[in-house]
Amino acid sequence: MCVSDRYIRALAIAILGVVLSACSAVPGQRMIVPSSIDVSGGQYSSEPRQQITVPITDINLDEIQKLQDAAKGDLSQQVQTMLNTARSEPPAYAVGKGDVLQITVWDHPELVAALGQPNPSSRPSDAAPGFLVDDEGNVQFPYAGSVHVAGLTVKEIQARIASLIAKIYKDPQVTVRVASFRWAQIYIDGEVRAPGLQQINDIPMTLPEAIGRAGGFTPNADQSRVDLIRDDQTIRINIPDLIDAGRNPARIMLQRGDMLRVAARDENGIYVMGEVNRPATILPMRSGKLTLAEALSQAGSLNQNTAEANQLFVIRAPYGSAGKPQIFHLDATSPVSMILANQFDLHPKDVVFVDNGALVKFNRVLNLLLPAINAGLTAAIVTK
After folding, report:
1. Residues 6+ apart with CB under 8 A from 144
2. 243 CB contacts (<8 Å, ≥6 apart)?
């Protein structure tokens, strides 16, 4: 036997050894699901990293029921308080600093001049002609002098002015209305058609009223994530959940200085990756909900040629820095599993991962080795 033959035989034995080692790296025809996974935490440093054990939870009817019960009780205490303390009849508007009043005394046209003349070149944001409530909460009215009106309703102001000018006019008939509402404002931002400042007027500013004045939700709005910022606190309001629970969102009253922000659906996407036909970021519905079955359907379902159907995982990041991630496992080989997937609600930023089969792993290992094998055989033939 010549040297070249011995070289080719040795090369073939080496190739066979590599192939067998690849087989041992990917044994069997299915992946064994561990009961938990160790995740290294902490920052890069000389100190040893903390090992966090993340249990893998099977998706079944009991687990789905437990998650749904927890979601039903997820209504924040602040929202509960606002709903429970709301009045059936909201209070009348109280005049404040910066408002402009129109005060009319009937049968006394000489007092009309005190209202001022309208400016034809005025902008929509300019105040209407009338009596301005100054920084001290007072208005100056003829024969009544300085009248404190801040915090009073229109009826109360009307009675006060009538009593003051009764010394000059017998039985005066006084009418008061707010010509410009400028004291109480809220700001609406995010996925509404007309974001910006909204004035609180004599119509109570409820949550639906504010969204309606801003033009309503845009198609990209996530109605389950409406944030109310009040007194440096953020209150998350889930409108579809309130309606499902029979609670009227119109019972949530907005106050001066509140800010509303409507989140966008593309801020809370679900990542579907692995052995699916169209890996993608799936957006939740307008209600903020998205089930595992809906996410898989929008991703083109499982790739029948490469997917290991019993190795479907949902990885859920923790809420806050102190929480732990969660991993859920679903065996999708049975048609009944799709019923479970249709009831399993995904959360924002969830990762849905479908693993590949053992033969696919083995084939990919071979694809990595084939260039080196071909190069070796070519070199051996040239040497011979």
Report:
1. 161, 164, 165
2. 249
**Per-residue pLDDT at 34 exceeds 60:** no
Neighbours of 384 (CB within 10 A): 11
HEC string of 129-172 equals: CCEECCCCCEEEECCCEEEECCCCCHHHHHHHHHHHHCCCCCCC
Q: With beta carbons less than 8 A apart as the criterion, state whether 239 and 249 touch.
A: yes
Q: Looking at the DSSP assignment, which residues form a beta bridge with residue 352? A: 272, 314
Whole-angstrom distance, CA of residue 97 vs CA of residue 49: 59
Domain region containing 221 = 77-90+185-266
The whole-model pTM stands at 0.71
* Judgement on whether residues 291 and 352 belong to the same structural domain of the protein: yes
Q: Which residue has the tokens 């508007």?
A: 93
Tell me the two tokens of residue 346.
């995904």
Tell me which of 232 and 257 has the higher pLDDT.
257
Q: Let me know whether 260 and 285 are in one domain.
A: no
Residue 95 belongs to some domain of the structure: no
C-alpha–C-alpha distance, residues 111 and 142, integer Å = 7
What pLDDT was estimated at residue 121? 47
Residue with tokens 């006060």, as numbered in its chain: 160
> Amino acid identity, residue 348?
P
234 pairs with which residues across the strands? 229
* Residue (of 75, 361, 54, 100) closest to 235 by Cα position: 75
Instruction: Give the list of residues 6+ apart from residue 242 with CB closer than 8 angstroms, or none.
Output: 75, 79, 248, 249
Answer with the one of 234, 266, 298 that is the final residue of a domain: 266
Q: Is the Cβ–Cβ distance between 383 and 4 less than 8 Å?
A: yes
Strand runs labelled E in the chain: 36-41, 50-58, 100-105, 131-132, 138-141, 145-148, 174-180, 185-190, 196-199, 221-230, 233-237, 259-264, 270-274, 280-282, 307-316, 326-330, 351-356
Which is more confident, 317 or 319? 317
What radius of gyration do the chain's Cα atoms show? 35
> Is there a contact between 261 and 190 (Cβ–Cβ < 8 Å)?
yes
Give residue 72's Cα distance to chain centre.
Answer: 17
